[in-house]
Amino acid sequence: MDIRRLQAFAKVYDLRSFSRAGDELMLSQPTISAHIMALEEELGAQLFDRLGRTVLPTQAGDLLHRYCITIFSQLDMAKADILALSQRVSGDLVIGGSTIPAQYIIPGLVARFLKQYPEVRVDLRGGDTSEITAMVLAGDAHAGIVGAPARQPELACRSILEDQLVLVAPRAQAHAGLTGEDWRQRLTELPWVMREAGSGTRQAMEEALLAAGVDPRDLRQVLLVHSSLAVLECVAAGLGVSVVSRMAARGYLESGAVTLMETPELVMQRHFYIVHHARRYMFPALRFFLAASEVV
Fold first, then answer.
1. Domain that holds residue 186
2. Do 151 and 278 sit in the same domain of this protein?
3. Both 154 and 167 in a single domain?
4. 54 plus 28 within the same structural domain
5. How far is CA 246 from CA 34, 132, 148, in A?
6. For the segment 10-41, what is each residue's pLDDT rounded down to a tens digit?
7. CATH assignment at residue 233
8. pLDDT tens digits for 193-247?
């Protein structure tokens, strides 16, 4: 089975278009069509339903595409291993990062890694902790750095860095603090800007609140946002208080855009973790990247 025909098939499958597949592969549309027709003749099955300008895979097409993913992955692994024999580390490396790692940890880590292994091509993808973990589990990312430990038994998970969470408030509350016996009551009366449920920051915050005897469901949520930057901008705009990583808040605190609310009874610390699939082949670029993460 000709690999060029399989590449053409996979591109048409992904893009649902013969013309766009041709553009991506720098081939003419008739050439793409000829590759697909040759495959269909060889397999004795129709791979796509051509419905006017719409292209939809058949059941046979879905099946072949699943095998193509394995075939292309095996070829990439073979190339990477052969290059590793000559002490070269190369290939594509997809790294997922939740909000704080993607902004404050991974860039420096990748810069040091690529300085040592310049032939690796890194694709950095973002999401919250649950999304990145799901990407690694599904094979859409080779590794991820997230703000909460992975619970899936298929994933290997290792702590690489400790982080402190802080309670930030609008500048107008510069002298506010949560001390005294009634601090829990006053905490629940504050307007809160909250991260989404899949956020590692939110998970760590809720665990800390529960440990301090506060039910997170009692907080008065006024806004739900999906990034630390959005949280800080909302707090700076006076919409409420929130919990964020000290790394993310540093610039806002130094500029006075937000203020720190002292919470002596509320200890909020967490770790960042690197996760990868423990049961999948670990090609050289991933092995060396995991080793590099040990010195973050």
1. 163-270
2. yes
3. no
4. yes
5. 57, 22, 16
6. 999 999 999 899 998 999 989 999 999 999 99
7. 3.40.190.10
8. 999 988 888 988 999 999 999 999 999 999 999 888 999 999 999 999 999 999 8
Which single residue is written with the structure tokens 């699943």? Answer: 66
- Measured CA to CA, the distance from residue 258 to residue 40 in angstroms comes to 63
Spatial neighbors of 164 by CB under 8 A, at least 6 apart, are 245, 246, 268, 269
Q: What's the predicted TM-score (pTM) here?
A: 0.62
CB proximity list for 235: less than 8 A, separation 6 or greater: 168, 169, 170, 193, 241, 242, 252, 258
CA–CA separation, 22 and 161 (whole Å): 45
Residues 179, 128 share a domain: no
Are 280 and 152 in the same domain? Answer: yes
Strands (E) in the chain, as ranges, are 48-51, 54-57, 91-97, 120-126, 143-146, 155-170, 191-195, 220-225, 242-245, 258-260, 269-277
Same domain, 15 and 46: yes
Task: Name the CA dihedral angle for 133, 162, 242, 250, rounded to a multiple of 10 degrees.
Answer: -120
Which helix (H) or strand (E) is 204 found in, with range? Answer: helix 200-211
